[in-house]
Specification:
The chain is mostly helical. It has 7 helices and 4 strands, in the order H-E-E-H-H-E-E-H-H-H-H.
Length: about 180
């Protein structure tokens, strides 16, 4: 049996970061982290799971390829924070068998986070982790028999995500 509160605390405390996982020489702004978590929690609480994921997806932006400079365009701290929230939202759902990303999606975590926040130097697929994450969530929530069609499951998942974000918010406050 899984201790769900402990799982939410462990994952929630992992969301706010002292250093940028894609560049350890940089620090992520603690107030931006707190604001992003607070907004995500408010949308989840008031509008529900699907709105929460659409919000995170839209705010996470896409890393794109600049054809003229032959380089990828990077994303800012706000976008990175929304990506981290979505990435870590998938962890408890996978652990509880409510979401089914590829088996190696979270392993090794440091490399996956770096790839999520920095992208890949590839013209054809500069943002593979973000693309897979968005597709996995969207497919899982829109398929027949999804958690959104089962009211008790939907509220259970919503409570788990709210609890995780609450712990993340406490951790973000402690970083200030």
């Amino acid at each position: 049996m899984v201790n769900i509160d402990r799982l939410c605390a462990e994952i929630g405390f992992s969301i706010p970061k002292d250093k940028d996982p894609s560049d350890p020489t940089k620090q992520l702004d603690p107030s931006k982290q707190e604001n992003a978590i607070r907004k995500a929690l408010a949308i989840l609480s008031q509008e529900g799971i699907f709105a929460y994921l659409i919000y995170l997806e839209s705010e996470g932006k896409n890393i794109t390829w600049d054809g003229r400079r032959n380089t990828q365009k990077s994303i800012g701290d706000d976008e990175k924070m929304h990506r981290l929230i979505m990435f870590y939202s998938a962890k408890p759902l996978k652990k509880l068998d409510k979401l089914h990303p590829s088996n190696d999606f979270f392993v090794p975590e440091d490399e996956k986070l770096k790839l999520l926040l920095k992208g890949k130097n590839d013209r054809n697929d500069p943002d593979p982790i973000w693309s897979e994450l968005k597709t996995t969530f969207r497919n899982e929530l829109t398929k027949n028999g999804s958690i959104l069609e089962n009211i008790p499951q939907m509220f259970f998942v919503k409570q788990i995500l709210e609890q995780m974000l609450t712990y993340a918010l406490y951790r973000a406050r402690s970083l200030r």
